[in-house]
Specification:
Layout (H helix, E strand, L loop, with lengths): L12 E6 L4 E6 L9 H9 L2 H5 L4 H7 L4 H18 L3 H4 L8 E2 L2 E3 L4 H10 L5 E5 L5 H11 L4 E5 L6 H13 L2 E5 L19 E3 L9 H4 L5 E4 L1 H4 L2 H13 L3 E5 L5 H10 L5 E3 L16 E2 L2 E2 L12
Parallel strand pairs: 4-5, 5-6, 6-7, 7-8, 8-9, 9-10, 10-11
Antiparallel strand pairs: 1-2, 3-13, 12-13
């Protein structure tokens, strides 16, 4: 798949589980941050073939595999085949009812201020931009985008790229530029200082919160958590993390990187309960899958059952 801007291509891995009468598919993209590659993900998936044939299901999968892209693809395939067997939608099985359209951020990849502003100007009618940051000149990038799209809502992702000093220094400027959320400003292993920092702009944990077990360490540091299916290891863990985070009073963000509509469709179910959604991966591709998700006016519409999640 060829992407528009930023990365020029993305390699995806698709798992299909079939029993003759029913089938289910799941897609994943290896997460470099966790040392994953296409080869390592394929090896992890192939290692599970025997277990699947011996009766592994999405409940036992959670204890059998660690979180990550490989488990995500298998988990989403299990959800899909279970729905087909039951002649129900995945949304119905998950107790969600009718899936509604959600508004997604439009991602501006890390680039020079002028180039990021140029892309923002071309899409200035979009309601929400997410800016990829994490380098020298970040405030110039935000200012340039704000000037190019004065009416848009802005969130920023520092990608673990700032220091404590930079975060404190940038905060007043980001407030003036009407930034609404800062995602993962500090490295995950150096974010304890957030407990003592005054942060008038809400902070969102990404790399600092991978699964339910990580919620204890984000208490007092972050106001939100970003749930990504490839990071958490599937729809099952994503639902559990969203529910546990809400019980703690944390806001929910649902995100993802570049990938096809097959990978985004399951995340769209978790996004039903999210305040912030960043699922524009298919928009960054030159070509998407057949029966891909419909994006219109900043909104993502429910998946065609032929793509993923439909009954029968």
């Amino acid at each position: 798949m060829t992407a528009v801007g930023g990365e020029s291509a993305v390699n995806v891995v698709v798992v299909e589980i079939a029993d003759g009468d029913s089938r289910g598919r799941g897609e994943c993209v290896p997460v470099r941050r966790y040392g994953e590659t296409i080869d390592s993900v394929l090896a992890a998936i192939n290692a599970m073939k025997g277990a699947v044939l011996s009766g592994l299901n999405r409940d036992t999968l959670q204890q059998t595999m660690p979180p990550g892209a490989a488990r995500n693809a298998i988990d989403c395939a299990f959800w899909a085949i279970d729905a087909n067997r039951a002649y129900r939608s995945v949304a119905d099985m998950a107790g969600l009812g009718a899936v509604k359209p959600v508004m997604t951020a439009f991602t501006l990849g890390f680039d020079t201020p002028d180039k990021m502003a140029e892309v923002a100007a071309a899409h200035r009618t979009r309601p929400l931009f997410k800016l990829e940051l994490g380098g020298d000149g970040d405030m110039e990038r935000v200012r340039a985008v704000r000037q190019a799209a004065p009416a848009a809502r802005l969130i920023v992702d520092a990608n673990e790229g700032w220091t404590e000093r930079q975060l404190s220094e940038y905060m007043p400027m980001l407030l003036d530029l009407r930034v609404e959320l800062i995602e993962q400003p500090l490295p995950a292993d150096a974010d304890d200082v957030l407990v003592r920092l005054a942060c008038p702009i809400p902070l969102c944990a990404d790399e600092s919160c991978r699964m339910v077990a990580d919620l204890d360490r984000v208490d007092g540091k972050y106001a939100a958590v970003n749930i990504k299916l490839d990071k958490v290891g599937g729809l099952t863990e994503a639902f559990a993390l969203a529910e546990a985070a809400k019980r703690r009073g944390l806001r929910i963000m649902v995100g993802g990187g570049i990938g096809t509509s097959l990978g985004v469709a399951p995340a769209l179910l978790v996004a039903q309960q999210a305040e912030i959604v960043d699922l524009d991966g298919p928009l960054r591709l030159a070509f998407d899958r057949a029966a891909g998700l419909r994006y219109e006016g900043g909104a993502i519409y429910p998946a065609d059952p032929k793509l993923w999640g439909g009954p029968g």
